[in-house]
Amino acid sequence: MAAIRIEGLHKRFGDVQALDGLSLTAEPGSVFGFLGPNGAGKTTTIRILAGLARADSGRAWIDGLEVTADRRRLPGRIGYLPQDPAFYPWMTAREFLDHVGRMFGLPAGERRARIDELLDLVGLAEAAGRRVGGFSGGMDQRLGIAQALVNRPPVLLLDEPVSGLDPAGRRELLQLIDHLRGQCTVFMSTHILADVERVCDTVAIIHRGRLVAEAPQQELLSRYAIPAFEIEVQNGLADQLVAWANSLITRAWVVSVSLDRAVARVTVSDVETARRELMASAVAEGLPLNRFEMVRPSLEDVFLRLVEGGGSE
């Protein structure tokens, strides 16, 4: 049984079609990356899954429970962290988690044990007695994940969980999400490609309310990523590199060329031809090379091809 199943969701807000027949499936115990640009329909989807919004049409299930038909039983199946979580600032972290545990009807002894377990899990044990109003953004997000796990839900819904965090906070939160793999199904929406590439098993890419691709991450890379080469020249030769890069556009085997200071990234349709002709062309141009290599395709390559290029499965 799938942890999350969505079939044909539609949702409109006035003139805006937020979801346009969205369908997808997330397997139990996975970290599922729900990826798309801002405004793609990610938050609308998560709010429907959390029972906070109703779809105009379509169906959705979480852990076998049909969300769109029986929202009363939903709180026992999910944990939810919104993009901008809010807490009672006068409470301590322990008091807040105790409040959430009471809402779920946990007995006092079980509540205390669960709170200790969660504070340790999210790295807030030493801050348990501090008022939440003084927490950093990263601490807020970790407390938000702790409160979402109080009831031991089979599915955890995270809406842009690392948005706005500094690099250290992002790293810590992604490590926590990675640690949850296998303990529950983590459904994480984001527009940050590197975060999905780091922790997600399966990736769904959504654009304008429609699914454009869904597959295990490595399968997605194999299916859609275009081979690329990077050529780095010595500093101060940017103009010469630009002229050479522009000359490549006419080659039949060149898909695209992008420049970042002294580095040209060339995506190609024919790897063997590129191996032969790129190096020869650069040498003929008199470019002093610091580096010439074929680079691993990235999720960013796939994302740009499918979203900006209008591709689909």
Could you characterize what this model shows?
The chain is about 35% helix and about 30% strand. With about 325 residues, it is of the alpha/beta class. The chain has two domains: about 5-215, P-loop containing nucleotide triphosphate hydrolases (Rossmann fold, 3-Layer(aba) Sandwich), CATH 3.40.50; about 225-295, Alpha-Beta Plaits (2-Layer Sandwich), CATH 3.30.70. The strands form three sheets. It has a six-stranded mixed beta sheet with strand order 6-7-8-3-9-10, sandwiched between helices. A four-stranded antiparallel beta sheet has the order 2-1-4-5, covered by helices on one side. Strands 12-13-11-14 form a four-stranded antiparallel beta sheet, covered by helices on one side. A hairpin with a 2-residue loop joins strand 4 and strand 5. Helix 2 crosses helix 3 (about 110-120), helix 4 packs parallel to helix 5 and helix 7 (about 215-225) packs across helix 10. The longest helix is centred in the middle third of the chain and has 14 residues, at about 110-120. The protein starts with a strand and ends in a 5-residue tail after the last helix. The relative contact order is 0.14.
